Amino acid sequence: MNMKLLIALSLGVSVAATSAMASTVDPETDRQQLVDFFKAKNPKISFEAYANGAYIYSDELMAQWESAEEFPPYLDSIDAGEAAWNKDKAVFEKCFGSDLTKIRPKYPLFDEATQQVVTLEGAINKCRTDAGLEAYKWKKGTIAQVSGFLAYSSRGEKINVVALSEGAKKAYNEGRDFYLTPRGQLGLSCAKCHTYNSGRLARADMLSPQLGHTSHFPVFRAKWQELGTLHRRYGGCNQNMRATPFKAQSEEYRNLEFFQAYISNGMEINGPGYRK
Ligand code: HEC
Questions:
Q1: What are phi and psi of 61, to 5 degrees?
Q2: Are 71 and 64 a contacting pair, CB within 8 Å?
Q3: Of the residues 154, 162, 193, 218, which has the maximum number of CB atoms within 10 A of its CB?
Q4: Taking the CB of residue 131, how many other CB atoms lie within 10 A of it?
């Protein structure tokens, strides 16, 4: 992290991040305020456009990205995900049904029985282990391929996370607190980069907006040369903050995903995505 970024970051920070912490907010009011915040910040960018991440802030980056998406490098991974799905189809269909367009949009969800957030990847592995199959490894490989296949099958469906119960509101607030809390040696919060400084450069990287962060996962990153899950990305950003990452599918990351997906409600699912 260079000094310029640190200075830029400290300039752009608002006190809202700290003063809002540890209070309990109503998810829907909070989501609307956030959508309004981004609208005020960039009046010309439509809500739907946020599904395209940092590319929305630069015509040049957008053009590069669109040409990469013409022959997207993730197509083989989608095929591999489909093959893995078909191999254990009977098991998967028992858990998820057979309409492939409807599976991705159901997650993340708040499960009232366990009072926990369930992610798509978590549900895939629970389905497997309940049926006596081996769980896939988290973060990359087959789990990301199956997740990518399901995302691809539901492209165009909308994110629609429900947070009406007390438990779901608590999970939302915990995810939100995680997002706003400064951590690591640099005292950075997710919000510093992805809310207050989104659209600005951090070294060579344009900072993406938090709206739409979940729409296109799993992601094929040029850096990884493969698909990776959202929690893999969370781990990477935690490391960049010089803060110890949590485990994929930890309660912290599941609640964070719940919060991030909820604020993107109404946006189209466009996974898997391609990113730098
Ligand atoms: C120092 C600034 C910084 C901080 C703090 C930071 N990130 Fe990031 N993050 C980046 C950069 C740079 C990228 C790559 C460019 C982009 O997409 O924003 C990125 C990418 C991401 C992406 C992928 C976006 C996409 O379009 O695929 C997600 C999701 C994400 N960050 C979440 C988080 C979360 C959650 C936190 C807090 C735990 C966090 N980040 C903290 C800099 C940061």
A1: -65, -40
A2: no
A3: 218
A4: 13
CA gap 80, 82 in Å, rounded: 5
Q: State the CB neighbour count (10 A cutoff) for residue 229.
A: 26
Pocket of ligand 1 (CB under 6 A): 53-54, 188, 190, 192-194, 202, 205, 207-208, 213, 219, 233-234, 237-238, 240-241, 256, 275
pLDDT, tens digit, 9 for 90 and up, residues 180-233 = 999 998 899 999 999 999 999 998 899 999 999 999 999 999 999 999 999 999
238-255 residue pLDDT tens: 999 999 999 999 999 999
Q: Whose CA is nearest to atom 17 of ligand 1?
A: 208
CA distance 168 to 95: 22
The token duo for 267 is: 């946006």
What residue type is assigned to position 31 of the chain? R
